[in-house]
Design goal:
449 residues, alpha+beta, Four Helix Bundle (Hemerythrin (Met), subunit A), 2 domains, 4-stranded mixed beta sheet, 3-stranded antiparallel beta sheet, 29% helix, globular
């Protein structure tokens, strides 16, 4: 996961081109690894919430052709007849199995042809002179896009039924939780901080522009809520008591028959979960994942707390009180390494709460990047001064659409698509994604624990 050089720290165009080439190759390796199962598995729709894996496989190539081969490179279309098949706005996920999609072998050949032309274009185009080219933005957008689909494909693999086809690579023990006692929460002092960015080269339009936000002082959990803590909510009848749920959340709980996080089941006195085809006891020390916004909100109310706003989350992650500036990442401006966060998807699970001390924020919170996406209480919308770039369908069409903001990235996210300003969003009912949460409280509710 270590990068040769970041775009921000590159000293010359050769460094930037090398960084882009490595990012393209890393994303493609993941795509091929996640589609290395047999053809039946690739063609099957494992859930109406998700596309068949074969659709994702060719879609990443189609988008790369549209943006890099045609737009940046100015070359003739390779497969214009498939443009509509792989347009995410043209066909719903549930309808995609009925489309005349490229077969797996044909998809792989198409990806190879597109990539060959992309690398030729990378060698010759200037990486400056237009917004799409400055800092290699268009290439970075495609790297992030393919890595986001890798996470989507992991969610599909988690939904599939059958023998495991993916196998984890465990992080080094040195970065995991040591058992040392951590304070349950950290205080974030009142004041303004810089939210968003105007300088991150590959930041997407919804992360821009940088702007000052004043946040009153508050407390936020040092680590994400663990399975063990969530089990206390379960054992206290949290899913059967409407007092902890909003009216909308309680309706959803009843309509969908929610009784525990997705993929959990109870046998006797033991809770079990299914993880990529493996049935195992729920580990108490991992962050809870596969919970909806409504479940996270109900837990927070049961605990006498609340979900943080998006601004509170970002201030806890980025604000450095010593310098007054906002960092790129909780630990500083250095690109993520395996010392800082659980990213890249190899682990197939979150790390225990309290892990990655080198990734702690200036104010002491841990695991704000990686492990689980974290629900916030904020609706997804534009920042003041927002401008569409490079197309409306990336962000603008989702504003005011009933989406809640998630921050931080999960264990399934690549470092290219995870930073202190990165914004994700989804419907508050979603549970198949790798989501968890941490809670917060106003400072007026008492001294820290």
């Amino acid at each position: 996961m270590t990068n040769p050089v970041s775009v921000s720290s590159a000293t010359g165009l050769g460094d930037v081109r090398a960084f882009i080439a490595e990012g393209l190759e890393r994303a493609r390796r993941r795509t091929h690894a996640l589609t290395a199962c047999d053809e039946e598995e690739l063609l099957k729709q494992h859930s109406p919430l998700m596309s068949p894996l074969v659709w994702d496989l060719a879609h990443v190539g189609s988008q790369e052709e549209l943006w890099l081969v045609r737009d940046v490179g100015g070359m003739e279309p390779l497969r214009p007849e498939i443009d509509r098949l792989y347009d995410a706005f043209e066909h719903s996920r549930s309808s995609r199995p009925s489309l005349p999609l490229l077969a797996p072998s044909e998809s792989r050949g198409y990806l190879a042809e597109v990539r060959s032309k992309t690398l030729d274009i990378l060698d010759r185009v200037p990486l400056a002179g237009s917004p799409l080219l400055d800092g290699g933005f268009a290439f970075g957008m495609m790297i992030q896009h393919e890595q986001q689909h890798a996470e989507t494909m992991l969610a599909t693999h988690q939904l599939r039924i059958g023998e495991p086809v993916l196998h984890p690579v465990d992080p080094e023990a040195a970065v995991l939780a040591t058992g040392a006692a951590l304070p349950p929460e950290v205080r974030i002092p009142a004041g303004s901080f810089t939210m968003g960015t105007s300088v991150e080269p590959w930041a997407l339009d919804n992360e821009r522009p940088a702007h000052e936000v004043h946040v009153p002082d508050y407390w936020i959990d040092t680590v994400p809520v663990s399975n063990g803590a969530f089990l206390n909510f379960l054992d206290d009848g949290g899913y059967s008591n409407p007092h902890w749920w909003t009216a909308e959340g309680w309706r959803h709980r009843n309509d969908d028959g929610l009784t525990a996080p997705k993929y959990w089941k109870r046998e006797g006195s033991t809770w079990w979960r299914t993880r990529f085809g493996v049935l195992e006891p729920v580990p108490a020390d991992e962050p809870v994942q596969h919970v909806s916004f409504f479940e996270a909100q109900a837990y927070a109310r049961w605990a006498g707390r609340r979900l943080p706003t998006e601004a509170e989350w970002e201030k806890a992650a980025r604000h450095d009180p010593a310098s007054g500036r906002s960092r790129r990442y909780p630990w500083g401006d250095e690109d993520p390494t395996p010392r800082h966060a659980n990213l890249g998807g190899a682990s197939l699970r979150p790390s225990p709460v309290g892990s990655y001390p080198a990734g702690a924020s200036a104010l002491g919170a841990r695991q704000l990047i990686g492990d689980v996406w974290e629900w916030t209480s904020s609706d997804f919308g534009p920042y003041p001064g927002f401008r569409v770039f490079p197309y409306r369908e990336y962000s603008e069409v989702f504003f005011s659409g009933g989406y809640k903001v998630l921050r931080g990235g999960s264990w399934a996210v690549d470092a290219s698509a995870s930073r202190g300003t990165f914004r994700n969003w989804d419907y508050p009912i979603r549970r198949q994604i790798f989501t968890g949460f941490r809670t917060a409280r106003d400072s007026t509710s008492g001294e820290g624990a």
